[in-house]
Specification:
single chain, 443 residues, 8-stranded mixed β-sheet, 17 helices
Length: 443
């Protein structure tokens, strides 16, 4: 009874924290957060609760998003360049518009040939996360461990993995590190598209609602009026919503290349950048199926959960110690945090006007976002306790901060693996996953 009571108290406290997530004052104080999933990786709080007496970490299981990157396609820059060049030819640009065109040209030149690539900041982010992992768990990370690392086949992700692993190797040269990036592992490193996602009767209505929400908040009217002498004439070859959306994405991506010393936030002002964040906050929530009434797209991440469970069980059964690293994308970290039941991810609402007060992508999928499960076993029992216990504890970290899952525990933020493992395996079983039939290879 005591164990359940403590757990319920902890969940109530964390639920209150989640309900008070994103205030306008917070965004106004930290405008970089309005970049949403382009936001820079925030420093963790630094507070890590000591493990119960006698328990030591023996295994860390990790999934991390790539670090800061360039936009994944050149089409945004190409479209903006073409539109602004046409406006210049027609003498439609205001003096402010001419300055915007100049800045776009600088940003486009820097990004040319680098679509989707890791930036210098992105490499630094992964090195810093690796260093903190080493510093936070010295009793484990100073051992001659085997480190198994896999990444998606995306170049920015492979380079993120390399920067992370090389930093660890520099700190502990005795590590035996295996790195791989293969289609063989993509069924769990990314969403498994073979899994059939059931239809939802309300999904189409949610997408219509999202479209209206996006086009109202990113209408483009302010940007058109500021950049063009005759906005109505400019509308004959520019769609205002797409124009504003492109500019918001450029403004957000500038946080990934701070060395450029280039900003576009002035095109939107504080309220406009907040509106852009709210648009993408709602979009990601719906895209990944985390919004009530949406199709359960997150089912396609159950193979990753299966991989976490199976790898942990093998490590526990071996009696050894190790480190398991996986590297991929925001489209994995976000739904995976929801599947795990992290308090930051499970409070979404279909009220898009209010969603940011309960669910914030900058808390979940900033650049270099990561999920860590840290496992502990009892190696030094108290004298009166007798032999060492076989009980395994696990702690959940969202971007290196302790978080909760919807299970009872008597030692928060630590959970008993004997409770955690069947909870997640039953979740997978209850989904009754159906896979599309894959055609046989032709001879």
């Amino acid at each position: 009874m005591k164990r359940i009571g403590l757990a319920l108290l902890g969940l109530l406290v964390l639920g209150w924290m989640a309900g008070a997530q994103t205030s306008r004052e917070e965004l106004l104080s930290h405008m970089e957060l309005t970049a949403g999933n382009y936001a820079n990786y925030p420093l963790p709080t630094g507070h890590l609760t000591p493990a119960p007496a006698g328990y030591e970490p023996f295994y860390i299981s990790h999934y991390g998003r790539h670090g800061a990157r360039y936009m994944t396609s050149d089409k945004t820059y190409r479209r903006l360049r073409q539109q602004l060049d046409t406006a210049r030819t027609l003498d439609l640009l205001t003096d402010y518009g001419k300055d915007v065109r100049r800045r776009i040209k600088v940003a486009a030149a820097d990004a040319e040939g680098r679509a989707g690539e890791l930036t210098t900041l992105g490499a630094r982010q992964h090195k810093a996360i690796a260093r903190r992992m080493y510093d936070n768990y010295p009793s484990l990370m100073t051992k001659p461990l085997f480190v198994e690392a896999n990444s998606s086949t995306s170049r920015r992700v492979m380079l993120s993995m390399a920067n992370f692993c090389l930093e660890l190797k520099s700190l502990n040269p005795t590590l035996d590190i295996s790195m791989d990036a293969s289609e063989h592992d993509m069924h769990y490193i990314t969403a498994d598209k073979r899994i059939v996602v059931p239809e939802s009767a309300t999904d189409d209505a949610l997408y219509r609602k999202l479209k209206q929400f996006k086009q109202r908040l990113l209408s483009g009217e302010k940007q058109m009026a500021a950049i063009f002498k005759d906005p109505e004439r400019a509308k004959t070859f520019i769609d205002p919503y797409t124009f504003a959306d492109d500019l918001y994405n450029v403004a957000s991506d500038m946080y990934c290349v701070p060395e450029l010393n280039l900003r576009f936030d002035d095109l939107f002002g504080e309220e406009g950048m907040i509106d852009g964040f709210r648009v993408y906050n709602a979009s990601w929530c719906l895209w990944e199926g985390l919004m009530p009434g949406a199709r359960t797209a997150y089912w396609r991440l159950y193979p990753l959960l299966q991989n976490f469970l199976d790898d942990a069980d093998r490590m526990i059964a071996s009696g050894g110690s190790g480190l398991r690293l996986r590297f991929g994308h925001d489209s994995v970290v976000l739904p995976f945090s929801f599947i795990l039941g992290f308090q930051e991810a499970i409070h979404a609402t279909d009220d898009m006007e209010d969603l940011h007060n309960h669910f914030s992508i900058f808390r979940l999928i900033p650049m270099a976002a990561n999920i860590q499960l840290v496992f502990y076993r009892k190696t030094a029992p108290e004298p009166a306790e007798g032999p060492a216990s076989g009980d395994i504890l696990v702690k959940f970290l969202m971007n290196e901060n302790e978080t909760s899952i919807p299970l009872a525990t008597d030692c928060y933020p630590y959970y008993h693996w004997s409770d955690v493992e069947p909870y997640y395996r039953n979740m997978i079983e209850a989904a009754h996953l159906v896979y599309k039939e894959i055609p046989d290879d032709e001879d």
